Amino acid sequence: MVVLTWNINGYRSTNNKGLFTPILELNPDFICLQEIKMNEEIVGIEKYHAYYNFANKKGYSGVAIFCKEKPINIVKEIGFEQFDSEGRFLLLEYPDFILINLYIPHGGRQKENHEYKFAAINKILDVLKSLNKNIILCTDFNIAHTELDLTNYKTNYDNNMFSLPERQKIDEILSLGFVDALRYKTKENGIYSWWSHSFNARERNMGWRIDYIFLSKNLANKIEDIRYLKDYLGSDHCPVILELTK
């Protein structure tokens, strides 16, 4: 089973650059997209069933999942009005597992939206605790977990996306019985998923790893490979692809 997740920072922008097609050529079983920034369904994606959670505000946020097999249940809300109105959550349930596509709020450069960000994460933690199946969680979490996960960690300890309280929220996810799929396979640094548009950051690989696939520990031994596809352009984020044995 192959799962791909990608914050595309606007479907039209990514697709207009002709760079969405290579993702389909990877032939994943599931494609989880964050920040689709649209309010209408995407047409022409053959072989896949499509499920969306659009933001109420046009051209903002939103997530989608394309899958080869239909789920037995779909959930789009977590019971948090502001978060739910922004189309940041999509859960597909299958007989043996649950797939979640999640887009956590940024939090603001000056941490002005941290109250909202933490409230959303705490509600997600409650949701995860309530589920009783193995879970695959694909997410732009907007937090780098450890010093391995960003280039300039020394200057970012107190900044949004790397402050200690934020990083501890990823610790909480792991404490619920999840593994970070990449860190289950390697402790290598320099593997990032987001780069600033400034200072040739992507070319210099001065980035942050804020996009994750978390798995229930019961699925960890099924991880064949996980890759951060830095060379796939079209967004300031790169796709992440996970291969699991069935």
Gyration radius (Cα, Å) is: 17 Å
Q: What would you call the structural class?
A: alpha+beta
CATH 4th-level superfamily: Endonuclease/exonuclease/phosphatase
Walk across the major sheet and give the strand order: 3-4-2-1-14-13
Runs in which pLDDT lies below 50 for 5 or more consecutive residues are none
With helices defined by DSSP (H or I, 4 residues minimum), what is the helix count? 6
CATH class categorisation: Alpha Beta
Give the tally of structural domains. 1
The CATH topology is given as Deoxyribonuclease I, Chain A
List the helices and strands and how they pair.
Layout: E1 2-7, H1 11-16, H2 21-25, E2 30-34, E3 49-53, E4 63-67, E5 73-75, H3 81-85, E6 89-93, E7 97-103, H4 114-130, E8 134-140, H5 164-175, E9 178-180, H6 181-185, E10 194-195, E11 207-208, E12 211-216, E13 223-228, E14 240-244
Helix pairs in contact: 4-5
Describe what you observe in this structure.
This protein is of the alpha+beta class. It is 20% helix and 27% strand. It has helices at 11-16, 21-25, 81-85, 114-130, 164-175, 181-185; strands at 2-7, 30-34, 49-53, 63-67, 73-75, 89-93, 97-103, 134-140, 178-180, 194-195, 207-208, 211-216, 223-228, 240-244. The N and C termini lie close together (6 Å).
Q: How would you describe this structure in keywords?
A:
six-stranded mixed beta sheet; globular; single chain; Deoxyribonuclease I, Chain A; 246 residues; alpha+beta; 6 helices; 27% strand; 20% helix; 14 strands
